[in-house]
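Re: the request from the purification team.
They wanted to know what the chain is likely to look like in 3D before they choose a buffer screen. I agreed to run a prediction and write the result into the notebook, where they can find it.
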Amino acid sequence: MDITYLTPDENGDIAWPDFDRNRRSVVTLGAFDGMHRGHQAVIDRVVALAKKHDAMSIVILFDPRPAFVHGWAAAHDGEEPSDDVTDVNALSGVDDRLAYMRRAGVEHALVVRYSLAFAAKSYLFFLGQCTGRLGMRTLVLGADAALGAGRKGDVKTIAALAASAGVFELDVVDDLGPGEVRIPRDWKPQMPDAWGEPADPLAVASKAERRAWSKRHQARSVRAWSSSNVRYLLGHGRIKDANEILGRAHGVIGTVVHGEERGRTIGFPTANLSADVIGYLPVDGVYAGWLIDLGSVADVDTDAGAGTDATVEADDTTAAKSGARWPAAISIGTKPTFSEKTGLHERVVEAYCITDDWLELYGHRVRVEFAGFLRPQVRFDGVDALKAELARNVEETKRLTA
């Protein structure tokens, strides 16, 4: 898969790559944050239609997330986030999303740096660029998609345009999954206070109880298969429910660094991740999951071409470079200090790999995946009580990752 990184100019214009003018293309676009099963259905549809019509499959991927850019600008007097500002609410990094596209068989991925100037372009201008410069003859969208300034280019509007102009066709992928769910409007991550995977609090509620809960929490409706719902679930320790929507284990990527090494002194040495973790961290707690070694940082270039107008060949950084994968008990905790980049409390991720081998992972890029919630972060009465609980966590991790 060819990847082209594109940066709009100050007017929001893009120097689109030149493709074979004799070939048509099937195009979709979006942030595809988390690449959940709904996103996968859209990508798979693009590839299927492209094969059917002997056309190019093109995915336009926006990075950073549009919601992040607009939210940051609203909170910072119209200023856009700089490259060193971390989007802590992004479910996954660009490389994870590209990796799925590559496996799905996408031919071209165009990673567009999302800017306010680009966002100000009308959907008519954007679609004109896609048809004129990219040879788009079929546009594939999810049923709730909208594009262009003010999100005025919704599916209904674009369908009418496609029918009247006759230049391209619109193919709408129906919303998949179990319909809609309701989540609190201004929710914040909340660590469960009990041991074991949290259950859906509304699973056995009556209609009256659901209405009361929705009113009390000012809940809003979102699609069950949505990035918003996945964030909400991870923010409440509901890992299994989130993984069901993702179609795989949620994971984050980071570099192993030296920590305080307290775990080593009690027989549970951990791999400590650096602060610049890529991917959404679930709420604080102890989890069962896996650690995958992606290789030394010197051998892993996850930012090749990022931020430049360049074309590179995709590298699936989510696949273990060394082939090493271990079950792991994972701890996420919060430091009493704030990050200057995000204004949020700093988070610490530690993974104890369940293996008889001594692991030397310092300086390695690793992927930490989550299989289930084990328990909240609590204080123990002495080292012996802590060691006994860690031993129980290890046994439960073995069971959940078997």
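For the purification team: Residues 383-400 form the longest helix (18 residues).
Please add any questions underneath this entry.
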